[in-house]
Amino acid sequence: MRITKEPFGQLQGTNVNAYTLMNNQGFQVTALDYGCIITKIIAPDKDGNLENVVLGFDSLGEYQEHSPYFGAVIGRVAGRINKGEFELNGKSYTLPQNDGKNHLHGGNVGFDKVIWNTQIIEREDEVGLKFNYRSPDGEEGYPGTVDMKVTYLLNNENELTISYDGVSDQDTLLNVTNHTYFNLSGDLKTTITDHVLTMKSHQYLALGDDLIPTGEMVDVENTVFDFQNGREIVDGIESRHRQNRLASNGYDHPFLLDENYNKEIQLKDRTSGRSLIIETNEPCVVLYTGNMIGSNYKIRGVNASNYLGLCLETQGLPDAINHPHFPTVILKQGETYSRSTKYTFLA
């Protein structure tokens, strides 16, 4: 197992580096110290061919100009916050409205747009990266100074584990995720419409017209939101269900997980034979099927288009601070935020 490091660009005079983790089977994960962005995951198909299975770019400028959060760590709070407003300990806070009238993915300069301090981890049975960032009190409107640590670890079983740890000197909000877009066909040969997704989830959150959760938890049975026995993504894209249509013809929905660390999320591409198992201690996963990836740019030579990749964002429930019956995303002063998600790639 080994790690390599190479320059990737500069941001305001500071070097940005790309680190590649490689195991003994040739499986690779490349990540930047800018936004902890995963730029590539090189995984074998059923015939042993190694190809990239995530969306990303080869230059920093492309990430800054075009990226819809490809591969990035999202925070302080993933997802939307209604009108960019919340109340904590009797005090009202106003956040940047960077998605219409709402706050999205931590604001204008969230965790995805800063350079993280990076330490290399080299052990006999795994290699990894430990990213550290101090988010000062008031950054993007959030209270408290947060010391955040994100760790990527790769082993010889083609398992990538992402761990998130944070502490704050004041009560604040924290709900962090990774926004990688997966496409198991390899090197973007096809869209993800024929990918089969299986999830241990019997409820999802209904969304309003602005994609903010209404607060209603809806049973999935007898709908295109039922992935309990496996379903092709195309079902939701072609669906006339109002929830699919308001999400720009697809999914952009939080699903409540019935189990944790028991193969609760599985994605498969039958042509390549690749599959991905995701296990987490988070209460939900947001399925986003790339409905608004857009166009007018290329992704490593492939024209950008909707449904070219999908996200499985393990996290707390979006806009939880404004829904008292949702699991809390409040991090108390001095307490430790600790979350993890494991991605296992099979063929």
From TrEMBL:
Q: What EC number is given for this enzyme?
A: 5.1.3.3
What InterPro entries does the record point to? Ald1_epimerase_CS (IPR018052), Aldose_1-epimerase (IPR015443), Aldose_1/G6P_1-epimerase (IPR008183), Gal_mutarotase_sf_dom (IPR011013), Galactose_mutarotase-like (IPR047215), GH-type_carb-bd (IPR014718)
Q: Which reaction does it catalyse?
A: alpha-D-glucose = beta-D-glucose
Give the record's keywords alphabetically.
Answer: Carbohydrate metabolism, Isomerase
An example of a Pfam family matching this protein is Aldose_epim
Say if the entry is tagged with keyword S-adenosyl-L-methionine: no
Q: Which GO terms describe its molecular function?
A: isomerase activity
Broad enzyme group: isomerase
Pathway annotation: Carbohydrate metabolism; hexose metabolism
The UniProt similarity line reads: Belongs to the aldose epimerase family.
**The protein's name:** Aldose 1-epimerase
User: Which species?
Assistant: Halalkalibacter kiskunsagensis
